[in-house]
Structure formats: structure tokens, C-alpha cells
Request: fold
Amino acid sequence: MSRTEGAHTITGSELWQWWQMARQQALAQQIDPAEVDWLVRAISDVDGLSLRLQSFRQRAAIPCRYGLPALETLWQRRRQEHIPVQYLVGQTQWRDFTLQVSTAVLIPRPETELLIELVHAAVAQTPALEAGTWVDLGTGSGAIALGLAKALPRAHIIAVDCSAEALALAAANAAANGLCDRIELRQGHWFTPLADLRGQLAGMVANPPYIPSAMVATLAPEVAVHEPRLALDGGPDGLTAIQHLIDAAPDYLQANGLWLIEAMAGQPATILQQLQQHGAYCDLQRHRDLAGLERFVQARCQGPQGSRRHSQ
Ligand SMILES: C[S@@+](CC[C@H](N)C(=O)[O-])C[C@H]1O[C@@H](n2cnc3c(N)ncnc32)[C@H](O)[C@@H]1O
Reply:
């Protein structure tokens, strides 16, 4: 929150008492108490260090986006209706960006940040890719596209989503983070809006929907009820969108172009087999997230002529 946004003030002592109580309620309900910290940080100028040291307690007046009663209402909605705090305050942190979010988009996850590190590593190995055209397919809030734009200052980034609402948020986030001249937005089904770029893409990065359809309803209500099904449901085995990205990408990637996706734990071995069977890919790799789970798959495209299958 910028300091000028604080339309209310809460004393440090009042906010500290509320914070203590809310953290206890979180623990009792098996909610991560870090969510309370996150809520306080999102509505005030209190930072992570002063929360850890509890030094905000000494402040006479803390400028806040909400007064204490409204903060308490938000927190009770989080507890009772299982609405993620990010949707309640309309924003989240991802890498070094503050992103606007709504229930039209998935809340970008910390593990997805690793995709940008993998892009860094791939470009270090093949510097010629850096100044090319990169696509973020299924951009949602625009998180990956923004991450690519910052990581690859000479690249042109295209963010694609079939949802007009998601693209509107991605556009707002690009503008708010000073990156709107670096990111082009296109609406449509995966590669369909990129017909003019066949054989030209330096890289394709995606966090596609990968949850098997029957599993979606079994997820925590914060996800199953409040996050958009379009962002979650990956078809009967969770791999419908991923198989499409395997089949279609060789027509769009340049030779040696990067194919990189996030997947669900347990899926990478199957995805590697599918890439191998396709015949247009080489340098197949899988990577782990910070919890040690295999969650990312990357490959290089041998170029359009290497493709055994043809897709639209
Ligand atoms: C798992 S979310 C990822 C959002 C964002 N990239 C992130 O990592 O936070 C998947 C995204 O794919 C989009 N999507 C689903 N089906 C699509 C399709 N057929 N074509 C393009 N985008 C699609 C959804 O709207 C959603 O924004």
C-alpha cells in the first residue's frame, strides 16, 4: 500500500491486538497465520520486518486502507466464506510486483515464480533467444508475462488468454508496473491468436490448467469455490491443455526455441513421454519446486520440420 492510500488510521497498539487475535483464530482453524500478516501488509504500510519484530505496536497512528471494523469484516469473510485474502483486498504480491487480482483470474502462486528463473537459465545457455518474441499462454493476471518482460529486457512479450476479463486485468497490471509498452495482449485459444508468428517464437511459457476435472471439487474451498474453473480444470486426466501445447508449439517455435510449463506433481514423467513421442523436441528436462516436488517441464524445439504431427 502506498502511504497516500491510507484513508484511515489505526493505532499501533490496536492493530497489534487485532493481529494477535486474528493469528490465534487462524491457528485454531488451521489457516496459515501468514495470511493475517499478508492482510495487514496489504492494507497498511506495515512491512514484514516490523511484523516479525512487532515494532509496529509502538506507532501512534498507522495509515490504513480500511478502519479496524472493516478489517475485522474482511478477516471474518476469509474465515467463514473461505475467500482468499488476495481476492478480498484485490491484490497480491508476486516476485517484485504488486498485482491486481479478481475472481476472474487465478491468484499467482509463489512456485510459479520459478518459471522465470528457469527462463533465465535457458537464456544464459542460448543468449540468441533473449531478444526474441516470447509468449505467456494463459496469462491470467499477467504475472508470468510481467516476469518475462523484466527478466528479458530486449524481448517482445505476448500475453494470451481466452478470457477477456483476465486480459483486462493483465493490461492493468502491465500498466501499473510500467511494462505496458513491453507486453502485447491477444485474446484467443492458446496459439490461435499467434498465426502471424509461425516458426518465430523464441519461447513459450505457460502455467496451464492441469487439475483433473474430477479432482477440482475436492480441492480446498478457497480454490474450488473461489478460483475460476477455467484456470484449474485440465480435462479428464489434467493433461488436455498440456497435450495441446505439445502438439501445437512446434509450428510456432523457432529452432531451439524454449517450451516450458508448470504442471501438477506426478505429471512431469507422463509429459516427458508425450514430448519424446511427439518427435519435435530435444533437451527434455524436469525441475523441482522449492518443496522438492517435480513441477516443471522444459524442452527445446527442433524447429517446424522436426514435427511429426501437425496441428492448428
Ligand atoms: C492456471 S491459470 C494461470 C494463470 C497465470 N498464468 C498464473 O500463472 O497465475 C490458467 C490460465 O489459462 C487460461 N486458459 C484456459 N483455457 C484457455 C484456452 N483455451 N486458451 C487460452 N487461455 C486459456 C485461463 O483463463 C487462465 O487464466
The chain has two domains: 3-81, 110-306. Residues 105-106, 108, 112, 138-141, 143-144, 160-163, 166, 189-190, 207-209, 230-231 surround S-adenosylmethionine (CB under 6 Å). The first helix runs from residue 12 to 28.
